[in-house]
Each structure stands twice: as C-alpha cells, then as structure tokens.
Amino acid sequence: MTDGTARFDREGAQRMDRIAKTVFAPVYPVIAGQILERCGIARGRCVDIGSGSGSLAIALAGISGLAITLLDSSPDMLSVAAENLRETGFSDRCTLLKADVHNIPLPDASVDLVVSRGSVFFWDDLPPAFAEIYRILAPGGRTYIGGGFGSASLRDAIAAEMIRENPEWQTFREKNLGPENRERIGRVLAELGVPHRIVNDGSGFWIMLEKEQ
Ligand code: SAM
C-alpha cells in the first residue's frame, strides 16, 4: 500500500483499508507466514509499527499466540484498525498505541518481535527510528521491517492492478524498494552497528535485526 498518493488522514485511512481488503488482501497472510518461519517467534509480545488498518497484525494474530500492539502515528488509521480488530475478534489479544516510531513509549527490552510493512519509507529520520526499535527489543528479539508483497507473482499481479488506477504507483514502488533506498537503509544499520540481515528477494525487502541473548 505504498503509493505516491498515500495520506494518513480519515479519507486516506478509509482508502487504504479498502485497498488492504481487496487488491492487497492476499499479501498479508503470506507475509505473516514468512514472519513466523523466518523469525521463529510465535509467542510473547509483538509490535506492528505503522500498522495502518491492521491487516498484517490480524493475519499474524490468526496464526500465532502473539500479543500484538498496533502502533501508528495516525489516529484515523488506528480508529479503522480498532473496528477491524472488533470485527475479526482479536480485540482481546491486540492493543492500539498512537505513537511515533522515533519516540516509542515502551520500556527497554520489552518486545520479542517488531514487524512493519510499508511504513519505513515514510519515516523522517532512520537512525533514531532504528535505535528506538533496537532499544525496545528484548534479548533474543527480532524484527521483520520493510516492504513487499510476499512473492514475485503477487507483486506483479498487484502492480498491474495498481498502475491501472494510478500510473505513478510504479515510480513510487521503485523508489521505495529500489537499490538506492535499500543501500541507504543498509548504511544506516551499518553505522548504528546493530546486528542485522537483509532479505531482498521476491518476498520483498526486509530488515531482520536480532538482539543478542
Ligand atoms: N502496515 C500497513 C499495511 O501494510 O497495510 C499500513 C502501511 S501504510 C502505507 C504506512 C503506515 O505507516 C500508515 O498507517 C502511517 O500512518 C504509518 N506511519 C508513517 N510514519 C509513521 C511514524 N513516523 N510512526 C508511526 N507510524 C507511521
């Protein structure tokens, strides 16, 4: 849902929710499965940063025992997410937190898994954002942060549909997931000195930090 017309006010939240439930709908269960497989954390506390209307958190809650905090800086996104949690029956295991990734109001070492899809491209200042994420990770905690569509075939099918609606979408996607941006993010992580691995394949571009035990 990373497109050049992204807005996070009430109208933008409703538009994103509509796209998440239609064109993007098949992506979230695939990514949720990849998160569990690649991170190996299915219990404990998880935070979804830039959760939007909650599709990834809901898919993840459905296949794990994670208690998930949906963190987003947009109150309009969170109010749509609240409705979606109620409708899917996950309100008891998922909580909402209006906050900015650059200043996360959670204690040090309190989170086992941080996930985030399609949000990192909007963060203003990556070094403090990643420092905050590393700070809240518990020993042994991991992250799955980035953007993508789960597989090359899903990506191509979605791109064809999105470009029909908005020809600029492709340019925006290439900018977000292209080599320049990937290298920029890689440099930030190297300078911070946090242990990490980057996945860059058909599933998308994903930053996997791991905090030492
Ligand atoms: N993760 C969702 C998905 O994949 O459907 C939503 C992605 S949407 C393109 C990006 C989200 O990141 C928006 O909900 C926006 O409000 C949130 N966001 C942008 N900047 C943020 C920041 N600095 N801190 C927290 N959330 C942020």
TrEMBL record:
Pfam families: Methyltransf_11
Alphabetic keyword roster: Methyltransferase, Transferase
Residues of the Methyltransferase type domain: 47-145
Record keyword Phosphoprotein present: no
Entry keyword Methyltransferase: yes
Gene Ontology MF: a single term: methyltransferase activity
Membrane-crossing segments per the record: none
Gene Ontology biological-process annotations: methylation
Cited InterPro entries: Methyltransf_11, SAM-dependent_MTases_sf
Protein name: Class I SAM-dependent methyltransferase
